[in-house]
Amino acid sequence: MREVADKVILPRFRNLAHGEIEDKGGNDPVTVADREAEALLREGLARLNDNIGFVGEEAAHADSSILDRLAGPCWIVDPLDGTRNFAGGKPPFGIMIAMADGGEAQSGWIYDCLSGRFCAAHKGEGAFVDGERITARETSETPPLAAISLLFMDDSQRERMKDGIAPHYQLVDIPYCAAEQYPRLALGVNDVSIFERTLAWDHAAGVLWLNEAGGKAARFDGSAYRVDEVGRTGLIGAASPRRWDELAARLAALPA
Which residues fall within 8 angstroms of residue 60, CB to CB, at 6 or more apart? Predict the structure, then answer.
């Protein structure tokens, strides 16, 4: 991950040429760095284990049948999470990789390309930042701090969030980067977050890492996040199970 960042991502930060940024549709940008990073990551991961499937964000965009691999053993790769920020010449952005089997992430890694912060987790073995085991912690703020992504919600969902959820929290800016948002939930920066779109490459590594740290990430109904539930939406991340429970109860009480 560090090698890919140094070779193809950082050299293009604030240095993208005309035509090296495209829109995949729905205000979803992609750059030449995304595609080159994914190609290099695929090569590197194949050297580690070429007997499992590869599900990269850009490959899946080009061929949706690749998503079928999420049901079995596979690598799940977001080669440049936070592309919107990267294309705009600002942080944060990172690389996210998970290894999954049976629809569940078994290992996850999150690399911050600018700071070098490296988050890692293996199922049942805890969560780590730069090799040090960490325990998720809440902020000391009252009311709690909430980072709520409204970007992929429809108008009615946005209004329900603003009317029924926002008054109970201090709303903070979202980083438009899951590689940054998940660490914020465990490292005492944010207390809760709501995600509407829950694509595997954005969330597989982060959900595992946050849960292994002692926080909680799960679907609105409390069910576990699975990488093979393609198309399912809605996810709560929290610095602690009690903060998760509070937010889930408020969501459940919202009028339909």
Answer: 66, 67, 201
User: Can you read off the two tokens belonging to residue 51?
Assistant: 């007997």
Q: What is the distance between the alpha carbons of residues 116 and 78, in angstroms, rounded to a whole number?
A: 17
Q: What is the pTM of this model?
A: 0.95
pLDDT, mean over the chain: 95
- φ, ψ for residue 4 (rounded to 5)? -65, -40
User: What six digits make up the tokens of 14?
Assistant: 């604030």
β-pair partners for 24: none
146-168 pLDDT, tens per residue?
998 766 667 777 788 878 888 89
- Spatial distance between the Cα atoms of 256 and 254, rounded to a whole number of angstroms: 6
Total Cβ atoms within 10 A of residue 18: 5
Which of the two residues, 256 and 70, has the higher pLDDT score?
70
Element holding 2 (H helix, E strand): helix 2-4
